[in-house]
Amino acid sequence: MTDAAQFKYVGTRPVRPDGVDKVTGRAAFGADFTLPGMLHGLILRSPHAHARIKSVDLSAALEIDGVFAAISSADFPEVTDSGDMGGEGGGSIKDLSDNCMARGKALYHGHAVAAVAATSLAKARQALAAIKVDYEALAPVMDLDAALAGDAPLLNEEMMTQGLAEPATKPSNIASRMVMGRGDVAKGFEEADVVLEETYRTPTVHQGYIEPHACLATVNEGGQSTIWCCTQGAFEVRSYSAAVCGMSIGSIRVIPSEIGGGFGGKTTVYLEPVALMLSKTAGRPVKMTMSREEVFRATGPASAARSTIKIGAKRDGTITAMSARIHYEAGAYPGGPVPMGCMSVFSAYNVPNLAMEGFDVLVNKPKVAAYRAPGAPQAMFASECIITELAKALAIDPIELRLKNAADEGDAAPYGPTWGPIGLKACLEAAKAHPNYQTALQEGQGRGLAVGFWFNIGFQSSAEVHVNEDGTVTVIEGNPDIGGSRASMAIMAAEELGIPYENIRVQIADTENAGYTMVTGGSRTTFATGMAVVEAARDVIGQAKARVAKLWQVDADMVEWRDGQALPKPGMNVEQEPMSFAEIAAKTAPSGPLLGKASLNARGAGPGFSVNFCDVEVDRRTGKVDVLKFTAIQDAGRAIHPGYVEGQLQGGAVQGIGWALNEEYVYDADGVQQNAGFLDYRVPVASDLPMIDTVIIEVPNDAHPYGVRGVGETPIVAPLAATANAVAEATGVRIRTLPLSPPNVLAALDAA
Amino acid sequence: MSQSTSNFAYAMPASITDTVSLLSQASSNGVRCQVLAGGTDLLVQLRSVDPDPRTIVDIKSVPEVSRVEVSNSERGVFIGGAVSAATMTHHEGLKAILPGLVEAAYLIGSTQIQGRATLVGNLCNASPAGDTIPALITNQAVCEIHGPRGARSLPVEDFVVGVQKNALEAGEFVVGVRMPHPSARTADAYLRFIPRTEMDIAVASAGVSVTLDDAGVCSAARVAIGAVAPTALLVPDAADALVGSTLDEASLAAAGRACTAASSPISDKRGTAAYRRKVVAVLCERAAASAAERARAR
After folding, report:
1. Which domain holds residue A238?
2. Model ipTM?
3. Does the domain formed by B4-58 have CATH 3.30.43?
4. Average pLDDT score over chain A
5. Which residues are registered as beta bridge partners of A66?
6. Count of A-B CB contacts under 8 Å
7. What pTM was computed for the model?
């Protein structure tokens, strides 16, 4: 591990290389691509939340002049692969296919039922209107209570719950159950002086990225395809599209555009397979762009959840046992974030007796997608509320109670492994010492605190470092840049090579120009792809040193690399002037161009803990909650670019506050979302919020050459409970169901 | 899109007479026709809701509709049909005498939208939640309407007849709104409730105007509420609760209760009926307190 003081570029805050294009409007996003002869594709969506599709008649649409293709699920190969898609989203390829184009049943309002491609959007709309679909409307199941009722209508009449103690004997809406734990919770609760048990609920929320899904696809007569699209993972778009369309992975090239936010919601596919099949049918390129309404009705969202948590503790605050029973809505197909929820819910505490039970439940809503730390915000909203309630019951300071039980290096994580170095206690201590935690509160105000956690992942990444003949460098990698990763990669390459940041250009390449790289997700990019960039840069240095040794006619180990130049190793008795990187780069004759590369499976992603606290004021007559101050503290391992780490902390805080206060899907009795737009799906606007203060804690992760931990997901976890805890302090009334919207808060205050 | 745009027509008449004749002609020929002032509602509808062709009559070249007049005489205050919210929020004369109406205009959309959005457009759109409508009713505003049968006047509370329905007949348009110049010791205030701080639509709203006598007793009042019924409502019972009082807590609370009683809200994505009934009272109380403070300062 290198000491922070030795870094020249790591920890600095240069301007991001993609910044100029993004602020001037030059950057090309998903909807910015066109091709000659291009058609416009549109999707016909189910007007029912739950219906059997008896027939789809496309003939009238195909008769319209200018309509080149009209397709339904009958035009897609029947996918039988029930294997897991992998990634944070979860679910099977078969379900992915059915989600892209409904087969047999429409399972939510807005589910794709057919698609058309025509010479203009007006023609395409006309074609949609001409399609005749015969539906048998069924009763929709719109929440967990309805889905779990004994006589609930079934989304999938053949689905037997997996993971029950006794095999299921009849189908239900519960796709699966999982249990985890350790010790003996019954004994643990018996040993406790105080036991609390409460149920907490969180609503369906959307990731809320600004850029709607968009793609352009073209399939040629030889079966070669190209897709331009906005995605978090071009390689996943390639493999998913290949599987859904029955094409080979090698026949599809995916070119990722710049991306206007994803937050996990762009780790799957919706339009791409449809555009491919339309293009294949029409013999022309097809462009598809979702409206905001389509984004709400047919993409994302994050699971609604219900968590019943029990906690027992001694008078001195020692927690003796905790149990959780968590139901997640999966939406239309299995794949809610049940494992991650069960694994994260008690991650912050070192408690001997734990029991976690999770359920994956189908409802007639869009299939859920990953959203920053999927599963953890819902579960830890519950656990971080109840530990605050416990602190109140025991009259112990909420930070002290957490510190007393906090997980630390060497403890066993609730899901098995032993914690390496983690920053939870450091974050708690930083909160305690922070000036924002000392300020006095006025009447009607309250302060709340909560812990956040995310596992973070590593896995497959590739990178190349190409050295140009003037000593400038091109870094080529395959992770779409969402949060400033080009800047991080350039900083790490600059640090390794010892050359200025400005001399490095980072290229996000497509699936045929970058080595395989997993999705920008799981907070993995700076960690895993960063490792690949560092390794590729070290490969270049090795090649450069070998070249210099050849020129100097000495052994390679007699050459040293320092500050971007080759020097004779001290004590080796080599009489040579140092050679600069540019000089070495120009001398290609001895061994050809310098080209470093690395491909790896990054192990040892360091988990990330955070502590958030905030002050709120509640208008007791309208129920409106104003956030006055918010402080986000998080262990980043090592902040490569502290400005973009702070940006992650602030962005996560804002999304978490939105989840806590106003965001929710509002449905009518027929299962039709009533607020499918940003006017009534209320994410916070800038003027709603104070400056989000940040503190970066650095407890380095040994597995990364600079100590990096992922930072992108943890920030959204703590704000839900921090806000709810603050509202409870401000009002004296504990509300356990989100959102804390004005009508909900006022109703709770009036009922108290 | 190119094909369906072929039946679009655009006209920019330079006088009231020409505007009326264009509108009348279109209506007698069965051509769909809409008036364009700021366009912040019209263009959004055109692009995202209803792209069908129509004739658009842009009134911004009609001199009368761009006028703001502030007169102490019986002409009172006139705000033309194409006067933007931004013009109002930067107009010192209006801000001094009609702070509540100006704050209502300041709540339309965003800063960028306010550069275009007009007071009269907000009125003609006739949304139950339109911010300027209660504020106009509070100030006894009257619509000046021109049409094929000449000019007529209609109080704002009678102009809005239903959800997104106004009283304009074929060939008519609103040249502007006129209201009395508030006397000394008279002031207004407008408040709406939204879960955010901006870029939102009223869950409930209240406009209040009060006049104080030399002793500080309320001698006249008007109260109007929004987003709690199909149209904004004038609430005489709330005004009665204020008149004769020193606008103390008890009378404000009584006015609030009258607003609750007058409201007939729905439950929807923006709030429950029960919530709206409660909050409209709070808004009335707070707007009345604010108006009283302003009146005392005038």
Report:
1. 33-138+211-260+266-298
2. 0.93
3. yes
4. 96
5. none
6. 59
7. 0.96
